[in-house]
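Anyone have tokens for TonB-dependent receptor? Sequence:
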Amino acid sequence: MNKNRLYVILMALLCIFTTHIETLYSQTAPPEPVCRLEGTVNADGEALPFATITIDNTTLGAASDLEGAFELGHIPEGEFIVKAQAIGFKPVEKVIRFEAGKIANIKFDLESDVLGLEQVVVTADRKETKRTDASVIVNTVTPKLLQNSESISIGEGLNYVPGLRLENNCQNCGFTQVRMNGMDGAHSQVLINNRAIFSNLAGVYGLELMPASMIERIEVIRGGGSALYGSNAVAGTINLITKDPISNSYDISTQYSSIGVGTGDATASDYSANMNATIVSEDKKTGLALFGFMRSRDPYDANNDSYSEISAIDNLTLGARLNHRIDYRSKITLDFIRMNEERRGGDKFEYPKHEANIAEAVDHKITTTALTYERFVGTGSMWSVYGSAQNVDRASYYGANQSLADYGQTDGLTYNIGTQFKSDFGDNSIITGIEAVNDVLEDNKLGYYDIETGEHIPNTLITDQKKSVYGVFAQYDRKLGKVKVSLGARFDRYEITDLEHKEGNNSGNVFSPRANVLWDILPELQWRASYSQGYRAPQVFDEDLHIETSGSRKVVHANDANLKQETSHSYMSSLDFNKQLGTWNIGLLAEGFYTKLSDAFASTPEYDESTGVTTYIRSNDENGATVKGVNFEATVSPINKIYFKAGFTKQTSTFGSAQELGEKDFLRTPNDYGFFSFDYDVIPNLCLIATGTYTGKMKIAYYGNNFTEDDNIIVEDDIEGAIRTTPSFFDLGLKAEYQMKIGGLPFKFFGGVKNIFNSYQNDFDNGVDRDPAYVYGPMNPRTVYFGIKLSNIL
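Reply: yep, here.
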């Protein structure tokens, strides 16, 4: 089936769908709203500011002020469910009958929800669902956890989710990725506000590009999600949800960090500043959220060899979210994010890149936009139409020994359009949709003037690829007493077009089913089980666009001409226990996972002696791969002043046949790792916080020139390498926060130490011929920081 026919079918379905919904809406459209609502929200006998008040099956909403009061107009006559909710509290619903010309009054008293059981999530089923009703386990990373762990970027905060771990893959430029359940970053689907718009090009430096301050929350689902979200959602899904404008608020903060304090090495400075503000019109119809972020980090040299282990960064990010309520049942949302980031690693930072002995540098300009239209229909349905796009302009230099031949320019455009309809009716619900995702990528090596030969070298096209995916998906949920069954499926047609290398063209049809069972064994105990199938299309992936450089060799990545899609079969089962015992709140989770990868993607190095370039060729392992293990999580709060959360993962990840340097085990993947977070409100204005991450031993490849007598040197295709086993690490952080008012303005002062015991790699390779990929363990050595925040929502 060609592209034009697919477009025609998709557009025809969209038109039929739209016509049906419009007809239904026109038949049920109510009269012009004329009623008003006033009230207050309290918690523990005190006013609760910034609680959200919404009216079911409408776009109407407001937020309580500093005294807990709220008001809302333009409400239609009739009986509606009014809901009050706030982070950390159980939502309360009340049925109110509104009459024309009258003001309804209501008072809400909210109870604490320490374990977050009543929290609403959207990623599990592509719709708003209470966490305890979700068909799969959803972990939520809140702004409080990001602040407690002092996570400047989103990636750092994901270390505090069971089964997830952020790792650094390059000494030179700090190329990072998030591993989920042992699988690398390309196995996870990253969403921005529920849309798969995070492109392969943007994913090279991934979640470290995005500031934590722009996030309302992060939702993480482990296990295959291709049935709802398409390609790459094999290990799981990470959904970045930005802040909604629901009230007038502001916060401004600035922070300074000193990297490497007391380690015997020179220190490096890391400075950042954040700004957030939300503005809502008097009639509550229009809201605007603005955010800004600035960061400047100096390079850090851990072993005094004049080459950086932590890259220099200059980042400026600006963004906005605009909501406008067209009427009481429909609204439109516009999102905009612009990220400019320059990063560089190597040596001679004061010189041009091509005059350094080693320089890996990238300059990202990323623009993301999204437009969403939503309309409530009937008494339990919603229809939405959406479109989003991300443009990436990346200038790069990956070179050594004063090379002029290693400047590059990469351009990428990703866009996603689709429509979705969900309906709840009694104990049943259904969600259906169609969408198209396109990704265009062009990578060039820039030309230069060769001084020695006097020759002008022209630009060289490396990659010119287009990926198109057209999908149709549906999920049906049925509640049968204490049991909830969810059945879902997605059909995708993908087309990979390689305009430069015709043998890279590929296409396929993929059917991805999903089945989930939720059983409320007891009010405090839930059992979940699921099966899901996922896939990865044979495209250019994130890591393919990163080049490892040293004075002795260069490492690039490429796909085998016969590369086929990778298919996954994932099985998961979990027990989730949550109970309040007197003043104690206790939550315990045990989750087992098993994933079988068919035609698993695996890379093996090939060395070209004439050019000194090592190419990792990605091909299919016909014997597949297996990832299995168990995640544990515990949440304990003995009193409302103390909160403790911890997670631990035990797993194995192996290929069916030997891969790099004869190893079957996944490299860079520890068999055990975990985290904890603890905070204690000593007095009303003082909070003490401790956080920590544990990384177990793992195998890693070494290709440098400093082999030891303990190395078992293996020679493959003229490449000398050895498999080494890293030590384990425990990264402990301590922090203190103090709130006070100065001149009537609320301030928060904070400071602390990351990696207080300096649990950090101590055998970095050194010199111009180092192996830059030989990097493991915590991202930073001991780091001391302090900062200040001004906000009306402290």
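The mean pLDDT is 88.
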